[in-house]
Amino acid sequence: MEPGLYQILILSTALFFIGIYGFLSRKNLITMLMSIELILNSVNLNFIGFNKYLWPNQMSGLFFTLFIIAIAAAEAAVAIAIIINLYRSHRSIDVEEAKDLKY
Question: Which of 7-11, 17-21, 58-62, 72-76 is predicted with the least confidence, judged by mean pLDDT?
Fold first, then answer.
């Protein structure tokens, strides 16, 4: 049985709020990065669901999803490079330890 639009939206909403909770409650930069990826994946599910059920003959939702995946991969690469440099200089990847990078 194929899931309907409402089931996809419920799953997407759950992923979005899990990502928001993980981003706001964690102090580890890797966990925060994973939470951002969850948020982006929930947006991808929305694009795919709406594309499939509302405009089945168009490909715009799929193109947006591919674009978001490419941007997320680039964002993850840059973020991991920043985290590695932060760990080398401060020996920690906690957000509280990175406050001196502000200025």
Answer: 58-62
- CATH code of residue 45: 1.10.287.3510
pLDDT of 79 reads: 86
Residue range(s) defining the domain that contains residue 69: 5-101
- Work out how many domains the chain is built from and give that number: 1
pTM of the shown model: 0.78
Q: How many CB atoms lie within 10 A of CB 84?
A: 11
DSSP bridge partners of 28: 94
Sign of the C-alpha dihedral computed for residues 74, 81, 25 and 34 taken in this order = positive
